[in-house]
Amino acid sequence: MIDPDDMSRLAQYSHRLAVMAGKTFIQEGEPANDFFIVTSGHVKIFALMPDGRRQITGFAQSGDFLGLASGATYGFSAEALGPLALCRFSRTGLNILKREFPDIEHRLMEEASRELVQAQKRMLLLGRKTARERLASFLLEQHHRSPTREIVINLPMSRTGIADYLGLTIETVSRTLNALQREKLIAITQVTQITLLNLPALETLARGG
Amino acid sequence: MIDPDDMSRLAQYSHRLAVMAGKTFIQEGEPANDFFIVTSGHVKIFALMPDGRRQITGFAQSGDFLGLASGATYGFSAEALGPLALCRFSRTGLNILKREFPDIEHRLMEEASRELVQAQKRMLLLGRKTARERLASFLLEQHHRSPTREIVINLPMSRTGIADYLGLTIETVSRTLNALQREKLIAITQVTQITLLNLPALETLARGG
DNA sequence: CGTTCGTTTGAGCCCCCTCAACTGATGTGG
DNA sequence: CCACATCAGTTGAGGGGGCTCAAACGAACG
Question: Are A111 and A143 within one domain?
Fold first, then answer.
């Protein structure tokens, strides 16, 4: 995570880059020559299998780094969720960055740490939780992400997005959400808007008992 | 990853700690006051659900950091797989470490990056792969980890361990391994020793087509 | 009004889980 | 040396949760 103040100073060491909504600007398997810092917009990070199975591994937003965790080739793909602005750095340019921002390594470390904690929680979710538990966890995650802690959630993605994020199919996502509604745990006010009616129940469900 | 040379120098800034095999020395949810560096032995990192469902999220060995990625409380548990030696640091002691090892942040970053790549691959595995694909991926992972690239693999864990690592049950692990043997992709020479008979087929299976 | 695309709903099936019994290796005491 | 207990692994039978395939629905848009 980079301060907004620093972002303008960053510009002189990088190429600024605008990406259209929906464009996949990092392709898994391609040579990882560059890395990026998101300056505005949201990014979907995912992995694909040859037959089209998709797993979303996370999201990135303004201030986040992208592509540093790669080896010789990118280990994931990244797609702009909306209009996107990026700073692109050559891999070797990282040293310049380090000179100019002495604490950059510290910040990188903090971001990586946070992501690693997230990743562990998601491995538990993907490996061991039922569909109901996954959806409950997902809804609470959205809830906690919200600045106002409002119990009305505006889903940031389609059913396909949720399914690929939770390791389910769109049908199961739809059915499970409706089941949770029947049980009065949530109310689906619009397709992309859900009200949490019973937070305690959702929390016990999310943690699995 | 810390150089063996440096490990002795580390000692004066930390408390040395010996842990018995099988002991859980980090408990999820407890206050994360300390962090650790493994100096010898192997560690299993996992998360638990109230009803006992377990997901192993990774392993750590000599030179690896442990517990840095936590917030106020540990987000995971850690168990010694065999006799284990650790250096324990107070959370605040990290600053001393940084002074003494100026490039420690860089090393930490590299380790975190590698783990993050691993984590993404495992999310794809846990979210989208079938049992056959998971086992094939697992066997190839063991194969690549081996220094000699020998096609004979000595499994480093029991069926329970494999199951908790791959998000399956022990029965499915057993059945699937035997199915792979019937199809001549592997040979189960002993319970904990497997020979890879058809690497190309295992690789296409692991990547899912 | 018709098309398109995302979502919902239904029916059926399959993969994996659950529960249970069996096998085999290891160890222990008589 | 053998009877017995224990525990990891295997094998079998059955059930269920989530997937697949298909059709209906509904909102956005020309």
Answer: no
Through-space separation of residue B38 CA and nucleotide C23 C1' in angstroms: 39
> Do B52 and B100 belong to one domain?
yes
Residues A135, A105, single domain; the answer is: no
- Pair A197, A185: CB distance under 8 Å: yes
Q: Which domain holds residue B187?
A: 129-207
pLDDT of residue B8: 61
Give pLDDT tens digits for A18-52.
999 999 999 999 999 999 999 999 999 999 999 99
B62 and B48 together in one domain: yes
Measure in Å the smallest separation between the Cα of A54 and chain B Cα atoms.
7
Closest alpha carbon within chain B to A165: B127
Same domain assignment for residues B34 and B17: yes
- Which of strand D's nucleotides are less than 7 A from any protein C-beta? 8-13, 17-22
Q: What is the pLDDT of residue A101?
A: 80
Residue B41 contacts A where some CB pair is shorter than 8 Å: no
CA distance B95 to chain A (A): 11
Mean pLDDT score across all residues of chain A = 91
In chain B, which residues have their Cβ closer than 8 Å to the Cβ of A129?
Answer: 49
Judge: B119–A123 Cβ closer than 8 Å, yes or no.
yes
Q: Protein B151 CA to nucleic acid D5 C1', in Å?
A: 38
**Does the pLDDT at position B157 exceed 70?**
yes
Give the β-pairing of A84-90 and A77-80: unpaired
**A119 and A158 fall within a common domain:** no
Domain C-terminal end among A63, A89, A124: A124
Helix (H, G, I), strand (E, B) or coil at B42: strand
Last residue of a domain, one of A74, A109, A124: A124
User: For strand C, which residues in window 97-126 of chain A come within 7 Å by CB?
Assistant: none
For residue A134, the domain's CATH number is: 1.10.10.10
**Is residue B14 packed enough to be buried (19+ CB in 10 Å), middle (13-18) or exposed (0-12)?**
buried
